Amino acid sequence: MARFHDLEVTDIHKTIRDAVVVALKPAPGSEEAFAFTQGQYLTFRHDFDGEELRRSYSICAGLDDGVLRVGIKRVEGGAFSGFANEVLKVGDTLQAMPPMGSFHTPLDGELQRHYLGFAGGSGITPVLSILKTTLAREPKSRFTLVYANRGVSTIMFREELEDLKNLHMGRLNVIHILESDAQEIDLFTGLVTQEKCGELFRSWIDIEDVDIAFICGPEPMMLGIAAALRAHGMEDAQIKFELFASAQPGRLKRKVTPGDTASSANQASTAITLDGATQTITMGKDISILDAALQNAMDAPFACKAGVCSTCRCRVTEGEVEMVANHALEDYEVEKGYILSCQSYPLTDRVAVDYDQ
Ligand SMILES: Cc1cc2nc3c(=O)[nH]c(=O)nc-3n(C[C@H](O)[C@H](O)[C@H](O)COP(=O)(O)OP(=O)(O)OC[C@H]3O[C@@H](n4cnc5c(N)ncnc54)[C@H](O)[C@@H]3O)c2cc1C
Ligand code: FES
Hints:
Blueprint: E1 5-16, E2 19-26, E3 41-48, E4 51-58, E5 68-73, H1 79-86, E6 93-100, E7 114-120, H2 124-137, E8 142-149, H3 158-167, E9 172-178, H4 194-203, E10 212-217, H5 219-231, E11 239-243, E12 267-274, E13 277-284, H6 289-295, E14 313-318, E15 321-323, H7 331-335, E16 338-340, E17 344-346, E18 350-354
Parallel strand pairs: 7-8, 7-10, 8-9, 10-11, 12-18
Antiparallel strand pairs: 1-2, 1-6, 2-5, 3-4, 3-6, 12-13, 14-16, 14-18, 15-17
The structure holds flavin-adenine dinucleotide and FE2/S2 (inorganic) cluster.
């Protein structure tokens, strides 16, 4: 089971005015736990005046960089991102769970593929990790990045991308789309919408040639891009998503069936396996399995509680549950019985879930 480990901040610097890049060194003995796959993220926990917050940040380093690095963009009024940008310094210790997430595709040095990445703002972090690793480990493959930002001054990793273009001559193409700054080519100004993608695919990107697309950014942008990719013939299996924040509230209350009362019909006996031990609890069907586990002092893993990060993933081994939101699990995982426990409520009177599988 994933647990928090100490990491030392070994470097911290600004990539733009409102974002820092933080290099981290796992405490001795934890190095192996932090071996990562390109595109994965770390979930940190930090105490703010007695309240523990958990926040996820994607690793922006490539597999061959020999360092663990995350990029944190300040969100106006945001607790963790503000702390990282204003207070965090070299020598501090952060606590994080080992890398998680499935925003990647297996690489093979023999393949000759064309990858297409879309990133919006801080959504560049996992895409940068993926493109660096891919260009280094698949020498015959190419990568096209469409990178959306408000203006030139908010482009994270601008110089690093230029360096990568020079390092991998002809194999990395970067198209910057800027919301408010005018560019020589009109098409490159404005928002990345389904219509703009359609125009890009007509004259700048040969979509028939693209094998896999990665999308990370604000949800409306992601939906528009995915719709354009599908409209131009890409299959769902070729499109990979990473959502940073959900536009939905994410903690939808389960619908209460008319006639429901606080009787035993609304209660479930739920067996929860965590770290090799099973505890059976009686819980209301209107609270999530994750909250029920936490209320019973079980140290179940979680980060966003919004169905986005998959940290709370477990597998249903008995009974049925309703998952009200899922922005993280792939269809094949759901078919195998995996659920996001922060979004799942018992439907049957007996349920068993396993966090260890
Ligand atoms: C898988 C994953 C990967 C991610 N990777 C990255 C990454 O690489 N880089 C990155 O920068 N981000 C990333 N994120 C987003 C990140 O986890 C945080 O969501 C983000 O940094 C904001 O957290 P925060 O604590 O700073 O803001 P929060 O404190 O959560 O605040 C968020 C917003 O809500 C408002 N708010 C807070 N409390 C209240 C309140 N009580 N009432 C009303 N409004 C309120 C704040 O003003 C702010 O606008 C990722 C998210 C996920 C799920
Ligand atoms: S805690 Fe993030 S998906 Fe459940």
